Amino acid sequence: MNDYERIRSFIRSYYTDENGGLQELYNSAVSRGVPVIRQDTRELLRLLLEMNRPGKILEIGTAVGYSALFMALCLPDAEIVTMELDPERAAEAQANFDRMQCPRIKLLEGDAAELLKELDGIFDFIFVDAAKAQYIVYLPELLRLSHSGTVILSDNVLQEGNILESHFLVEKRDRTIHDRMREYLDKLTHSEGLVTSIMPVGDGVAVTYMK
Fold this sequence. Notes:
The chain has eight helices and seven strands; from the N terminus they run H-H-H-E-H-E-H-E-H-E-H-E-H-E-E. The chain is globular and about 45 Å long. A seven-stranded mixed sheet has the order 3-2-1-4-5-7-6, sandwiched between helices. Strand 4 (about 125-130), helix 7 (about 135-145) and strand 5 form a beta-alpha-beta unit. By secondary structure, it is α/β, with parallel strands linked by helices. It has helices at about 5-10, 20-30, 40-50, 65-75, 85-100, 110-120, 135-145, 175-190, and strands at about 55-60, 80-85, 105-110, 125-130, 150-155, 195-200, 205-210.
């Protein structure tokens, strides 16, 4: 184990697991290979929610509903809209919301690129954790749905380190994702009105603040 992994293990030793049904949901998802936020990312998400106390939250990428439920438990008064493309996962997520009695979570099933265009209102916090090649496609709508003070948390932006490589060193099948993620990060860090920090947390996150 290298020093970086030792540091990460040391930090994770201070985290505690969730209780009850939420931890069971997390364990089930991990055992089945369903993507859920990593523990490091979860703790950063918790901190950002506590600091900002958003009233309206938008999530892109529901999976089985773990992160939406986590946010709902962190902020009992918040309204959450979450989007999921896969019908089976959407159905499982809705069952989990019903089982844990979280009517404040509204699940929209379909392609987020299209659903976002139909969405009205302004959100205080946006969590992006869906198809990585689509982040740059989502961005104009995310900005439209934001206001001064909105925080956008984008997950998995380092792509297991692939983002570090040049275009031609990445596997051919991954080049579109690689190039679009680099474009997305460039937009977040060089657009007027946005302040963004890219952090090596989990598989990499970008935290963006709308001025």
